[in-house]
Description:
Structural class: alpha/beta
Shape: globular
Mean pLDDT: 91
Number of strands: 8
Radius of gyration: 19 Å
Number of helices: 10
Strand order of the largest sheet: 1-2-3-4-5-6-7-8
Largest sheet: 8 strands, parallel, barrel
CATH architecture: Alpha-Beta Barrel
CATH topology: TIM Barrel
Amino acid sequence: xxxxxxxxxxxxxxxxxxxxxxxxxxxxxxxxxxxxxxxxxxxxxxxxxxxxxxxxxxxxxxxxxxxxxxxxxxxxxxxxxxxxxxxxxxxxxxxxxxxxxxxxxxxxxxxxxxxxxxxxxxxxxxxxxxxxxxxxxxxxxxxxxxxxxxxxxxxxxxxxxxxxxxxxxxxxxxxxxxxxxxxxxxxxxxxxxxxxxxxxxxxxxxxxxxxxxxxxxxxxxxxxxxxxxxxxxxxxxxxxxxxxxxxxxxxxxxxxxxxxxxxxxxxxxxxxxxxxxxxxxxx
Length: 283
């Protein structure tokens, strides 16, 4: 008997200019036929991409049949600002929010009229409307946490505040993800945990992302993506192979859903899902 195909969601970021907008819509149009559960749109630190995020969400609603989820951060915003944004989203038809604290700017001073932590933001959003809310999880620990247990205790506060789903930061070591799931289960966290998958579109860029979010990069990747390995087609084949192997192992260990960080590029994600779909169907 064939198994249920993996369910997917995609993350995009709002474009800065016309050429980036063209690339974004090329990716959206390529991936839309895969019928993702939802597509999320990022929101810059301190709301720095607020209008571009809103416009991207608005265009997704207007031009596609996709279900959008907007990222929303609370750093640098008052409760009144958050309430106004959330109510506007609800009127637009956005019923799903990815609720995040956001990165702290240097010398950041908390606004006494704002939310300090993501769990407070989740609670505040639930009081505004019956949003579906996703929150972030870190299989290798949030960079600011003292240890993984402390980080998962913070995750539980977000869940207790009303979160419906956990989307993890990207990772490459599946064993760390499985250990993370074991601790989550012991903490009585029972909402879905969706692994975040980052196809390696640009290796050096990925390494920078990994340092910022505390993700470990396997040593062999540095050799595989050596500067002398310059052929772009070969790099893409290698990146697809790595992501497919990672996802195949996750499927074998009963992971059913995946969230892809697309970087507004469709090619790798499209091929990866096509192969995973067939792996799942023949399992």
